[in-house]
Amino acid sequence: MPRSVRQYEAIRKEKRELILDTALALFAENGFHQTSMEQIARKAGISKGLTYNYFESKNAVLAEILKKGFNAIYEHFDLNKDGLLTYPEFEFFIRQSFHVICKNMNFWKLYFSIMMQPVVTETYIQNYSETSEELIKILIRFLTDNGSENPAKDLFIISSLLKGAYLILVTSPVIMDEDLFVNYIMEGFQRIINHKYNNDL
Amino acid sequence: MPRSVRQYEAIRKEKRELILDTALALFAENGFHQTSMEQIARKAGISKGLTYNYFESKNAVLAEILKKGFNAIYEHFDLNKDGLLTYPEFEFFIRQSFHVICKNMNFWKLYFSIMMQPVVTETYIQNYSETSEELIKILIRFLTDNGSENPAKDLFIISSLLKGAYLILVTSPVIMDEDLFVNYIMEGFQRIINHKYNNDL
Amino acid sequence: MPRSVRQYEAIRKEKRELILDTALALFAENGFHQTSMEQIARKAGISKGLTYNYFESKNAVLAEILKKGFNAIYEHFDLNKDGLLTYPEFEFFIRQSFHVICKNMNFWKLYFSIMMQPVVTETYIQNYSETSEELIKILIRFLTDNGSENPAKDLFIISSLLKGAYLILVTSPVIMDEDLFVNYIMEGFQRIINHKYNNDL
Amino acid sequence: MPRSVRQYEAIRKEKRELILDTALALFAENGFHQTSMEQIARKAGISKGLTYNYFESKNAVLAEILKKGFNAIYEHFDLNKDGLLTYPEFEFFIRQSFHVICKNMNFWKLYFSIMMQPVVTETYIQNYSETSEELIKILIRFLTDNGSENPAKDLFIISSLLKGAYLILVTSPVIMDEDLFVNYIMEGFQRIINHKYNNDL
DNA sequence: CATGAATGAGAGTTCATTCAT
DNA sequence: GATGAATGAACTCTCATTCAT
Asked: With an 8 Å Cβ cutoff, is C172 touching chain D?
């Protein structure tokens, strides 16, 4: 009995995932350049050649991994995708992003390490700048709606705080309590967003 | 007649610097693994072999670069090295560290990108953990002296903020105004350090 | 359809032999250190990289060659492997060992030359000391059974004669008649083993 | 005061010896190819360049070492150089050669290891074949004078025994008692030379 | 769909030798 | 005589990628 088209598709999808997961694990543990296609294939239990049946190149594997990472974070952004961010949606996004990172720490270690590489950065910027600009617009609107007098400035500070928190979370050798961590960050956001200059500053 | 010891020393120091600077520029531009010793030598106008007269290996070149970076930042920490951090010393350190980064942005891009690589991270941690622990002690003392009720927690938040700010500074494609940036961060520190819980939180 | 497991095995075995034979020829002709992997590959008609598909390193190629040599000689020792050496077995071993060496002179030139190298000697001693001790025990027993009053002494003299003969055979620029050579050595053994002290000494 | 010609000569000779001794020690310990000119110079406490002031090349250093070795052994052969070897002279030579080897074991390890290398062998044969043939003639005469009926055969057996003994002495991991060792070998010679066929063979 | 043998360009590294000083 | 910086060719080894089967 020949397999149906649907069965073939299922097999293909499964293998793709297998390769991606294996590659991710190895990239995260040893770094991208220290990981060979041979290692990936062997650990995945398939042949070297087959990998190239599913991905054009080693870089293509990486690109796919990064893409999945980006989506994993931003699928929780503006949940109903109406282009309007409410405060609950904002908080949900923050908490979810930390949750996602904590749940798959190794991936995010890799993600950050890769994102810092000069060439990758350029590639990434080209691919995702469109989406990024969309996000920025929504956030600016969100800050304005929440009473920010200088939303660009506040966005900048918020981004700093958020990225810094991700970084700490990912590079710290000690494992931190997720809830405590997020609560701190949320408190930081509240202070920035709700801040009014008073006489004590 | 052979050159004098002093002449040899001068040559060696100059060449070492030349190699380090060239390597840094290339590492920063193309990444560590994408840069070959051949490229470094060619750009420095010397032979490949000579590089190994000055550095044991490519990794040794990197290690030296990282060491210089670490020192460049931390020479401004606790300026009089008395183990006691005053608030002015703290502020001086923060402002200086941003200044140092801004002045040599390419280096610091590399520095951060390298620091994220799994293997490097381990090497680095082993080499610098001692110094780091010293720093942490001093900072804990500093926070306690400034009225912190939970200095470990506050240290954690401060570190997040600082590292995040460095990250943003270094990865942002737009060039930012240094003073504005530092002022913001300093304000963040003040809020964290001087913060008292009031009824509005 | 991929090749069958059997096909792959056949290919691997054939290529392995090809590489070993080629390497041996070159090592023997030019010496181990004067032979590069590139030369081996070129002479074998394959790519440099492929060599490393079959052997972990140049040293691994050498180790395999030495191992084969050791076995080639000692498979004729104590033919029925009962731990007891009869005189016919002894003579058979001597004659066979010379035969083996004469038949593949180049290999044995290399073998001896390699065995003298300081580093190799250590490696070899560690790998084969166990087997050697077994051999010594059997030979001591053999000499005792043949009336030796001081088997350690006689073993030493015999070993000297044998090793020296191998050495001469291998290093001599003139080609000697194998049978004549062996007969001489066998006579030497007889003189040593059957010697009875008489009044003329 | 400028140094006199004689002083310069003394310095040159001393330096030459220093380089030779140092090179020998390193060659013997690590092998010829594993020893660099840099190592030799550093261990000798001189500069790399100076080595080339005394020797044309690394190979020239080796050649000189080998030459000294050859002479060290054969200066004891046919002590009065009258072309006639008496039995006492023969015994003296054998005992002296073992003594020389035992006194400077490392050198002789190297010597044998080097002598086996294909290229070296050729060079050596060309340089010393003349001397060797002279030696052979004297030994044949010696054996004939001592009642040998087939001096070529006996020479061959004796040479085998001697070379084998040297080989064992040099490659054996255990240190042997020199006198015992020589006595064994001398006894072997006596057994071979004085052998008379009796009815038990 | 699947295999792994095979390639070839290029990496890091070593080192005998040269040469300006 | 003496130095060691400098060279450049050669080395061992790696690995992304191809392709016959």
From this structure: no
